Amino acid sequence: MKTGKKGLSTIVTTLIIILLVLAAIGIIWGPIKNLLTNSSNSLDQTKCFSLNVQATKVTNATSPGGSATSYLVTLKREDSGNGVDSAGAKLIFYSAKNSSATIDFESDSGASMFTPLQVQTKTVSVGFANATSVEVTPYYIDPNTGQKQVCTTSQSFDFTIA
Q1: Could you tell me if 116 and 77 are in contact, meaning their C-beta atoms sit under 8 angstroms apart?
Q2: Would you say 132 and 158 are in contact if contact means Cβ atoms under 8 Å apart?
Q3: Is residue 157 within 8 Å of residue 134, measured between CB atoms?
Q4: 58 CA to centre of own chain
Q5: Residues 9 and 25 occupy one common structural domain
Q6: Rounded to two decimals, what is the model's pTM?
Q7: Containing structural domain, residue 123
Q8: Intra-chain end-to-end CA distance of the chain, in Å
Q9: Tens of each residue's pLDDT in the chain, 162 residues
Q10: Are residues 96 and 154 both part of a single domain?
């Protein structure tokens, strides 16, 4: 055996261990950060579970003798809030052959957002006759970003125009 040669000093060994621990923390933090970010986004979507905006009445708003391309739509917000003070709605009309573009509901009085348990009515021009159902999709305004957060849930309302 050779004498006079020393191994790694305690200070160098300690520094290597500290660097390895920091590297491990960095590697583990990436997936944890993703998990936390995704779960906060899904928490925002839970607001949609408490939103319930649905059509209660759809009638012909076209003048007599004309084809029904405009409809008088009444929507009601059925929920009591649960953290969402005001909500809006997007509409899509369907017939046997057609579907409309997405229409942002805004009542004839100019109000576009629903407070809990509020009813609003609007005349909507669809662009085709003989619509038989309307799909209502609620949304809310994110207080942090000011952007519309459209919910993934929607409700259909079937109707007939006499």
Answers
A1: yes
A2: yes
A3: yes
A4: 24
A5: yes
A6: 0.66
A7: 51-158
A8: 106
A9: 556 666 678 888 899 999 999 999 989 988 888 777 665 554 466 777 778 888 999 988 876 666 668 888 999 988 766 777 788 899 999 988 888 888 888 755 656 688 888 898 888 888 888 888 999 999 888 777 778 888 888 899 998 876
A10: yes
